[in-house]
Structure formats: structure tokens, C-alpha cells
Amino acid sequence: MHPFDYARSTNVDDAIRSGARASTRFIAGGTNLVDLLKTTVEKPAHIVDINALPLASIEDVDGGLRIGALARMSDVAAHPLVMQRFPAISQALLLSASPQLRNAASIGGNLMQRTRCPYFRELTWTPCNKRNPGDGCSARDGDNHMQAILGTSDACIAVHQSDLAVAVSALDGVLTLQGPNGERRVNATDFHLLPGNTPHIEHDLAAGELITSVFLPDAPHAARSAYLKVRDRTSYEFALASAAIGLALDGGVIRSIRIALGGVGTKPWRARTAEAMLTGKRATAENARAAADAELQQARGYGANDYKIELAKRTLVRAFVELAGGAA
Ligand SMILES: Cc1cc2nc3c(=O)[nH]c(=O)nc-3n(C[C@H](O)[C@H](O)[C@H](O)COP(=O)(O)OP(=O)(O)OC[C@H]3O[C@@H](n4cnc5c(N)ncnc54)[C@H](O)[C@@H]3O)c2cc1C
Ligand code: SF4
Fold first, then answer.
1. pTM, entire model
2. Per-residue pLDDT reduced to its tens digit, 31-60
3. Inter-CA distances, 223 with 88, 144, 230, Å
4. In testing the pocket of ligand 2, which one of 41, 116, 138, 144 has its CB within 8 Å of the most ligand atoms?
5. Looking at ligand 1, which residue's alpha carbon is closest to its atom 44?
6. Mind listing the pLDDT tens digit for each residue in 122-153?
7. Is 137 helix (H, G, I), strand (E, B) or coil?
């Protein structure tokens, strides 16, 4: 591990000031960052502990719920208002990691977690553009069975693996960010960035900026939402493919629908093509399959992950049919 200095901030302004120094990382639960420190994938000179900041509340506010960035994954998953009004969020969290990790890990840290691409994290230092820009990408012609099929580039095909981010993206979540230049809001769908030629730039967060909260807007499709995660084993594993869907029906007709896919994109993948195709249509499995086919038309496999194209379609259709119930 590279040496770093450690300071604990007790107010947001102080954390932002400290965080704006070069080579600084915030630490919350530490369940992602500490691994990367130990392998020296991350080598910050300064670490600012943000756990004492007053950002852990879950509040019922005008038009929705506001979840503090330091709320723990387990607390959010079990919160009655989250379960009632945003079931997909609760389910996505409960299907993430393990109970111990969920007790320690924060909402902000989850959204900021870095990829599990083995070439990014491994110690033998094969080329990786995300870790070392300009190095090359070992996954494209290597072990890519877990990697992305949507939003990839020549520079990087690493999948984004946060389950929560997929559900927040589907349900039109809005992040509040606070930094040296004040506060701003960013739609969750715009927060994570496609790799393009700069895979090391992963999100819209400037130096010193903190995620302070996530706002979830109430909507009929949010109250009827679900998260389906397909993985190699049924617990303690990252997604091969997942789908977060919110659905509002009028009789058997889709009044509004929100869909995001996980485990398949270089960022949480909002399936806008599928949403547009399904809105106003009957809630049938056939219509869902046609929408999934259209959404995945832009997918590209790299050999070992070709299976994800069909898997993503089936995951979307199954999640839709289960949610629509008797209407499908
Ligand atoms: C074995 C294992 C299995 C896992 N399985 C899953 C899974 O199935 N699904 C899933 O979604 N996740 C999974 N995870 C990831 C886990 O959910 C994350 O490690 C965790 O959510 C990170 O939260 P944290 O508070 O510990 O973040 P930290 O490790 O403290 O921080 C992670 C990153 O976020 C930054 N950060 C933290 N808080 C903020 C903030 N408020 N503002 C700005 N930056 C911030 C830090 O600087 C750091 O870069 C798994 C992790 C492990 C170790
Ligand atoms: S996919 Fe991205 S993270 Fe993985 S080796 Fe290639 S550049 Fe690195």
C-alpha cells in the first residue's frame, strides 16, 4: 500500500476543501476503496473520511424521497418508504454484495464503485486504459465474459457493476453534488460517462465534489417497480444481466414505463428505445420481446460475452412479464 495521510471531516465544507486537493479520495464504507488501495490500483496521497458528515438520513420530501449519500445500503433497502414507493431500489440493494458489506457500504460509495474488470484490478499489470491511459485494453481480446456489450469503445469494454445505479437510473433519480463551486443537481442517467477515448473519466464529478444525496421522484411507475438480477450463483455475485423496470398500466395498456439494464453496459443502461416502443402498447410478452430486440440492436459482443446479448433480452422480458403479472 502506498502511504497516505488520513483526516476525518465533521462538516461538508471542510470535506470539500480537503477533497479538492490533488490526489485525494473520500472514504465512506471503504468496501471498494480499501481493496484498491491494497492492490495499489488507487494511490491517493490524502484520504478524507466522510463518515461523520450529516448525510445519512432518508427523508420524505415534496415529490419524493431524499436519501443521504452516507445512508447504508442495508438501511435504505429495509426502509418502509423505499420498499413501498420504490421497490426496485430496495430489491437492487438486497441483491447486492452480502449483508455484512451492505451494513458497511454507503449509497454514494455504491454509485462511485469502480469496475471489477480483472485486468483493472489484478496485480500482474496487464495493459488497461482505465488504470493507465494509453496502455491498451487487455479485456477486448482476453477474458471478457463479464464485460459490457453496450456503450463500449475501442479503449474500454468494462461493465459498470452497481445494481443500485441501474435502479436509480430507471426511476429518474437525481443526484445532488456539492463542491468548491457550490451545489448542483445531475440526473442519474447523465452521471456515469461512456468510456469513449477516456475510460479513466468515469463520472461527472469534479475534484472536491461530494455526492450529498439522491432524490427519487414519486410516480405510479416507481411504486410498481422491480429489479431482476441474473448471475452465476444466486447470492453474493455481480450481475451477468439485470433489469430495473417501473410500470404504470391502464387496463392492459402501458401508460408509462421505465427500463434500465445492468451487467451489460459500460454505464447503467437506460433502455429508452424499448421504453418508447412499449409506451401506449398492450403489456404483452411479445411486445416486450420486440422492444428488447430493438434495444439490443446496438449491442456488440467480444467473444466470451456474446451470450449477454440474448441474456439481456430475456432478462428484460422476464422482468417485464413478472411485473405486469396477469396483464402480460
Ligand atoms: C465481495 C463484494 C461483492 C460486491 N457485490 C456487489 C453487487 O453484487 N452489487 C453491487 O452493486 N455492489 C457490489 N459490491 C460493491 C459494494 O456495493 C461497494 O463496494 C460499496 O457500495 C461501496 O460503498 P462504500 O461506502 O464502501 O464506498 P468506499 O469504498 O468508501 O468508496 C468507493 C468510492 O466512492 C467514493 N465515494 C464514497 N462516497 C462518496 C460520496 N458521498 N461522494 C463522492 N465520492 C464518494 C470514494 O472516494 C471511492 O472512490 C460488492 C463489493 C464486494 C467487496
Ligand atoms: S475493459 Fe477497461 S478496465 Fe478492463 S482492461 Fe480494458 S480498459 Fe481496462
1. 0.98
2. 999 999 999 999 999 999 999 999 999 999
3. 9, 36, 22
4. 138
5. 210
6. 767 799 999 999 999 999 999 999 999 999 99
7. strand
